[in-house]
Amino acid sequence: MRCITYLVASSSLLFPFSQASALDRRAALDECLTKLNVPTFISSSANYTQAIKPFNTRVTFKPAAYAVPETTQHVQDAVSCGASNGVRVTAKSGGHSYASHGLGGEDGHLIVDMRNFNNVTVDPTAQTAAIGTGGRLGNVAMALYNQTKQAISHGTCPGVGVGGLTLHGGYGLISRSKGLTLDNILEATVVLANSSVVTASETQHPDLFWALRGAGAAFGIVTSFKFKTFTAPESNIVFQYYLTPANASHLSTILTALQDFSLNTQPQELNMRFFLASFSSLSGVYFGTRADFDKLIAPLLAQMGISTTRGTITTNTWLNTLTSFSNGPLAQAKEYNSHETFFAKSLMPARLSLEAITALTTYWDTNARSNTRAWYLLIDLHGGNSSAVSAVPADATAYSHRDAVFKMQFYDRTYGNVYTESWTAFLNGWVQAIMDASPDAQDMGMYINYADTSLASEEAHRRYWGRHYERAVQVKRGWDPEGMFMGPQIVGR
Ligand SMILES: Cc1cc2nc3c(=O)[nH]c(=O)nc-3n(C[C@H](O)[C@H](O)[C@H](O)COP(=O)(O)OP(=O)(O)OC[C@H]3O[C@@H](n4cnc5c(N)ncnc54)[C@H](O)[C@@H]3O)c2cc1C
Ligand SMILES: *[C@@H]1O[C@H](CO)[C@@H](O)[C@H](O)[C@H]1NC(C)=O
Ligand SMILES: *[C@@H]1O[C@H](CO)[C@@H](O)[C@H](O)[C@H]1NC(C)=O
Ligand SMILES: *[C@@H]1O[C@H](CO)[C@@H](O)[C@H](O)[C@H]1NC(C)=O
Ligand SMILES: *[C@@H]1O[C@H](CO)[C@@H](O)[C@H](O)[C@H]1NC(C)=O
Ligand SMILES: *[C@@H]1O[C@H](CO)[C@@H](O)[C@H](O)[C@H]1NC(C)=O
Ligand SMILES: *[C@@H]1O[C@H](CO)[C@@H](O)[C@H](O)[C@H]1NC(C)=O
């Protein structure tokens, strides 16, 4: 089902990559790929049907062709087939984009599925690791751990792909201590629009390296990253406190306390998130001692009106810490088969005003509490004066949310695989209510890793990249002058 109408005018200007007849070029594309021995899933095969089913089944697209390369040369050849046929090319790693950007975000792309690029090779002396972009987080975490107990900072769900997560952010339960996933990249190996391969780093093609860290989908196909790793911490306090806000003013008190804590008091070692749904919780990880944790959390819980006895607190090894939040085993099959049907939005506010908090909690009281779908609002305590994410200078990477106190994810779904488009009004209304009460609503960012299908391209660009957008466009002109890597929301024009 197509969920949004995209502006066609801007794409048709992008000769030679016109979408108008991309699907008619299927036969020529398949012929080119076959001639160059690039492995593909042909559209009549069961593998193809399985592979194009996105994580979010609400948002489906028809590719023009589907390549499954095994070598860098295959990726280069696939890109050249896209170029010679005037078809846009899109890399897919884990396929977890909320707007199915890994399938192009629109019909008619040549998809380059990176599933075979899943090697993880640790250099224990240097504490670095070469990681293929097609790996899934759970498998990568286990492989790093197996090789001299290393780790990187990454998101919580084990099925998410390294490629999309890293190129656009990557926030998880050690990010406050170690930064975003993209903050830990030392090098990226990239197949460019003209099929040549370059390595980008602080010293090699720094403009490309800047753009890849936050806006990566629009510049090439990254085959692997070199990451800085750290030795996995093995004695971690995992906590979860349950609570039910009594009413809107209680929820306002909770959010105000969390915001003040994140901005001023929360140390790097404490990572946490507030989950608001039909049941609510405060959960996270403390990388320190139980005694220090108790001292830190008690005053916050008191402010939030949560009893210290409403919690579960355990001490965990690194892999158990990961599985405490992974909602299933870390090991992931190559042929991925988990799906949801949903609509989601995000907000990355520098700070929520008292009026904005009141608008949020009033809407919760009047519209959300009575909504019986499986919606949630997940608030990560992202920034503040001791967060490693905020410590990186605002313009050092294309990621544009260094000052955001919260990373807010609004998610609405049913457990059946249906989602009626009119239901989007629920979350659109919630975010609008917060915006209407915010003096800085124009500047409020959104996170492309929670891609929002309701945003037209101009708003998507502004919300995802803010003042970094124009610089990203300049960089793109140098590396993808003809607009091969385009989509409805990624950096373009
Ligand atoms: C269940 C679930 C849990 C999540 N948890 C977290 C979390 O804890 N923290 C967090 O920060 N985010 C989280 N996310 C969001 C996630 O980071 C994004 O959806 C991310 O973009 C997914 O990456 P992917 O490779 O799986 O997706 P894809 O759909 O394959 O790719 C996403 C985008 O990246 C581009 N891309 C992918 N690979 C490459 C490549 N090799 N070269 C160039 N471009 C590429 C694609 O073209 C597309 O535009 C979660 C998402 C889901 C569905
Ligand atoms: C294609 O699908 C078959 C049957 O599901 C599976 O056994 C095979 O491994 C798949 N091929 C690839 C290359 O994934
Ligand atoms: C992965 O590693 C194996 C073994 O070292 C190697 O043969 C293969 O080429 C690598 N694959 C990729 C895609 O880098
Ligand atoms: C890691 O090692 C464990 C235990 O030896 C093994 O079960 C698992 O398959 C390995 N995983 C990876 C990704 O290497
Ligand atoms: C909201 O709940 C709090 C905590 O239970 C309570 O003290 C307060 O009186 C309630 N306020 C209203 C307006 O009901
Ligand atoms: C963090 O910032 C607040 C002001 O917002 C200040 O009161 C506090 O002392 C700062 N803490 C540290 C450790 O710098
Ligand atoms: C490929 O494109 C890059 C970036 O525009 C350029 O530097 C390089 O010279 C090109 N390579 C070839 C072989 O044209």
From TrEMBL:
Ranges of residues in domain FAD-binding PCMH-type: 59-232
Gene3D superfamilies named in the record: 3.30.465.10, 3.40.462.20
UniProtKB keywords: FAD, Flavoprotein, Oxidoreductase, Signal
Highest taxon of the lineage: Eukaryota
Keyword Membrane annotated: no
Pfam families xrefs: BBE (PF08031), FAD_binding_4 (PF01565)
Signal peptide positions (record): 1-20
Gene Ontology molecular function, alphabetical: FAD binding; oxidoreductase activity
Cofactors (names): FAD
Family per record: Belongs to the oxygen-dependent FAD-linked oxidoreductase family.
Protein name, per record: Glucooligosaccharide oxidase
